[in-house]
Amino acid sequence: MTDGDTVTLLAAGKAQIKVRLEGIDAPEKGQEFGTKAREALAKKAQGKEVRLRVTGKDRSGHTLGVLFLGDEDVNLSLLRNGWAW
Asked: Potential cystine with 84: which of 20, 26, 46, 66 (Cβ 3.0-4.6 Å)?
């Protein structure tokens, strides 16, 4: 986890994909609650098998997407729990 709204996923074939979570923004590392937001995302997804729905690319060319843990929308969960806006 880079911060509370960015993850690096290990895809099939061991390829790494850096993903910005679509539709949310979380505090960055160094900002108030940045570490807590990153920890909340890590608790949800780190070391778990997740599914990614790619929604596009941002202006910088980064992959945008919605992360799912089973049927749970992780992006929405972070928002509902106050770790993102």
From this structure: 26
